[in-house]
Amino acid sequence: MMQGARTAQRAHAAHWGQAANALMPMNLVFDDAGTIVHVGPTLQKLRPHIDMVGTHIHDLFAIRDNGRGDEGSVFPLDTKLYLTLKSSPATVLKGIAIKIPGADVYLLNLSFGMSIVEAVRTHGLSDADFAHTDMVIEMLYLVEAKSAVLEEIKQLNARLQGAKSHAEEQAQTDALTGLKNRRAMDHVVARLLGGRVPFSLMHLDLDYFKRVNDTHGHAAGDAVLERVADILREETRDDDMVARVGGDEFVLVFSRMVDSARLLRTAHRIIARLEEPIDHNGLRCAISGSIGITTSALSQCGTPQAMIHDADLALYAAKHAGRATAIVFDPARHAHNAPSVRTDEA
């Protein structure tokens, strides 16, 4: 007899629960002993691997009320409740429980309260998990719209940052050779001087380049410049810098390399490679190079302009020594010389 009454009670509870699912999908129905007899679909989604039906409600939740509940009930009724799921993640819920008229069962309606956004993210919920009249739906739409806007802003910022970086790179790059330009060279020299990093600077001017342009045309001249750029890249290290600072002028900056003998060996190797004829559509383009060298240790003023001037003086001396050579700046010999107007000779 008692078993039949219990079965009828559970059937009645399930009927109430099914009716409540559409309006309050986070409902829970329990009997007068505190045993859960029905769980709403959204509440079950919070613990998909736990069969809540048949579990005692106090085994599932830690419960705190406002002190005004029905003291005669196994569960506080008709009062605001704060419940925390005992298993991880310990989601915090708000709720209220009432007794269903004419039955020894109780209906508990739950919500996430202010933790709705975190709960939706944690449990993978969507608008389908809430009643259509629930204001949570409006909040989810707003959260989704905000997330979409923030993602679009994030992508826009990334594109703008990429465009800015590209523009900055372009502003410091020689379009023909892909080497750095004078602006980039000035920046690097100033940074090394400011950081008191020892370094050297070579100023290379191509010999007989004007003859290539005049004889074979500017396309051949461009091909020669591109080949020169390749040679200079191959003869420098990753930490060094090569810049094209004029039509046929280049500056090489060697970080932490100030030994004159080593610099001269490098310069002579570059000159030797430049003197190898460069083929352009079957035309043999012959050039050479003159190089002036200075180091941060030789610079008396310690400014980018002063170092470039010192390298120019050494380059001027190399030109007048017969070209195709390299000279290290000597303050005693070169400081009072002034470069005359360049001639690109025969």
From TrEMBL:
PROSITE patterns to which the protein is assigned, alphabetical: GGDEF
Alphabetical list of CDD domains matching this protein: GGDEF
Protein known as: Sensory box/GGDEF family protein
Database matches in SMART domains: GGDEF
Species name: Celeribacter marinus
Pfam families (UniProt xref): GGDEF
Family matches, as PANTHER family: DIGUANYLATE CYCLASE DGCT-RELATED, GGDEF DOMAIN-CONTAINING PROTEIN
Superkingdom to which the source organism belongs: Bacteria
InterPro entries: DGC-Regulatory_Protein, GGDEF_dom, Nucleotide_cyclase, Rev_trsase/Diguanyl_cyclase
